Fold DNA 3'-5' helicase.
Amino acid sequence: MRREEVVLGGGPFLPASACYISEQMAKNHSSAAEAAYPEDDRPLSQRAMGRPAAASYLEGLNPEQRDAVETLDGPLLVLAGAGTGKTRVLTTRISHILNLGKARPGEILAVTFTNKAAREMKGRIGSMIGGAVEGMPWLGTFHAIGVKILRRHAEAVDLKPSFTVLDVDDQIRLLKQLLAAENIDEKRWPARMLAGLIDSWKNRGITPKRVPEGESFAFGNGKGQALYAAYQKRLKELNVVDFGDLLMENLRLFQEQPDVLAQYQQRFRYMLVDEYQDTNVAQYLWLRLLAQENPNICCVGDDDQSIYGWRGAEVDNILRFEQDFPGAKVIRLERNYRSTGHILGAASGLIAHNEGRLGKTLHTEDQSGDKVALQGCWDDEEEARVIGEDIEQLQRKGHALNEIAILVRASFQMRAFEERFLNLGLPYRVIGGPRFYERQEIRDAIAYLAVTLNPSNDIKFERIVNVPRRGLGDSSVKAVHQLARARGVPLTQAARMIVETEELTARARKSLAGLIGSFDRWRGMIDSMKHTDLAELILDESGYTAMWQNEKSPQAHTRLDNLKELIRFMDEFDTLAGFMEHVTLVMDREAEETEDRVNLMTLHSAKGLEFDSVFLPGWEEGLCPHQRSLDESGRSGLEEERRLGHVGLTRARVRAKITFAQNRRTHGTWQSAIPSRFIDELPVDHVDVVEDTGYGGYGASRFDTVETVFASGFYETPGWQRAQRNRPDTGSPQRRREPLTIEGTLVAASTAEGSGFSTGTRVFHQKFGYGRIAVVDGNKLTVDFEKAGRKKVVDSFVERS
DNA sequence: ATCTCTGTGATTTTT
DNA sequence: TCACAGAGAT
């Protein structure tokens, strides 16, 4: 994720001796190498040096794992259940391919979903083959690899090689502008919704032209498709791509340029895919294209752990693998090395209720250990109290808090636990939540750096043009915008032009000129200054650091710390450009946690992790099979929720406890809840019911209150009142009051070179009124206005009167 | 520009 | 209930 990813192509990747053999084998690798294996086919030099025999790393594997590692040719699906050594198989397989000399590191494509997984694989392979990780240039996330390929062929998809990746914030900002331009009421049709829709299209590999007619109506009364097209056009103008494009444009590239596709098909002798159950349609199509020529594709995944359907993952991809890749071999990894027999039994029993699955039966030799505990509680507070007590007891027995996790379905559940733990003085940490890169101050800082590097990055420029406040409010920005659009130039360039005139107030003009000047100055220092020093200088000189120093809010200090952390992070890269290249894609830095704390997170973020003790609160109908999931996706939704439960249980090594609350406060009102259907699906032999002794007596009376509050409160809810009020209002979306003639002038001005104006012409200006042109200087006019006096203006802001 | 008020909606999250 | 975003007021 750091420097090594910037390295393109395959550099030296193995010790010299190994490199030699790889070269040789790669040339005529097919039959000879296969026949030779498993005999010791290392070069004499290596054998003489006493290096471990080729197969030594295979020894610790169980038969299925070994089969998965050694079945190198043809399509292979490895169904790897939870805790069955999936990562080990992947990394050993890569090492094996390299060791046999069947491919060079640069000829292996290995894709993961997260940076974390990619990093882990790099690390493990590095320690297996001897540290030289640079040799795996094509090991990374789908997105990172997508960027790498796109950079090399940017022109083929109407981009410049210097394109940047748009983050979600900027994406929304851009969509909002489009909606405003189209006069769409953002209240009714929020930009986020459109973003989600576009994302879902991109997930499925659907271009604007191919949007199904019905789906276009999912936004703005049928404007969905047109807006998607407009958005794509705008992205190209700005030379940016969004996350979805990283794959979409790759697909387009491969489809439109067969020679480019062929180049990669030949390059990748072996392909490996991690977490295949999480791939979306676009990723699947991408892999299919690459594997057409050379079917050595190995997908590792677990259909029972597919929990990202709602963001485009297609479980179907893994279910259909054998049809998609004819002649595919399927290997099941069912030996679990993580959990006790009871935990595994409970998890297996639960997931067995799903119909759409390939079917695996996890087993373990470990038959010791406790059954899964089950306890009902009165409400969420009691649930937190019970779990808090359990944890304190574990702590007293000497268990590390780091080995304890509470996995919730939805983040609002965390609150009760946090309150309780603060009360008890029990240290905890929340995993997930807002990420470093998503913090406002980090994004602002990055915006400054981005504009310094590339002055035509309009989106970033807009973000910080008035941050910190420098008197460039809406009206000033709008004027710059208008000019930029009329001329078809970036905002910074429009700003340069406008400060030569008197369109803006003297104060705004001075401020804007200062900002532009600063950016020019900073840009001039890129080559002569260390990038981290430059970043610091920019943040200081722009007044950004001062802005937070002057703020008295308690978070201001953290923000300044984060900025320092950003600079420290930058230091891991050689140049500013190198840092910026990776900033959008990889900023998942979490400070290494050393303290002993209980882990609190959602079930989703627990995937891939494991703990000695796991608590699973909130197993209630409507929450653990989440109501929304049921409403929106019916049976498949229910099955995904069940997989979520399965993922939760299989995180536990030695103990797991499921709890549910009979009453839960949601949106302010108390609701009585019934235990999740999943609870009754657990095999009784693996479960111990803990009697709930925590409440007595007052339950019924409280319940009465619940009903009264609910019944009487309804007609006072804001929602109802809103509905009443809005009834007669037939809704008249505000029309933007902009004379059409202005538009006409704008179009004319943008097409004509130079101004079509001459001295003496009577003109009209929105702000200054009527006047007569005194001087024409290219696009700049000096006009004697009847009321405002002599002003310098840009020609596109006036019209003939 | 900075605040206060009002309306709104409320799973899950990576890149 | 409560947090947050956007509009409107000062």
About this structure: The radius of gyration of chain A is 31 Å. The longest helix of chain A spans residues 627-649. Confidence is low (pLDDT under 50) at residues 1-39, 695-754 of chain A. The domain at 164-238 of chain A is CATH 1.10.10.160 (Arc Repressor Mutant, subunit A).
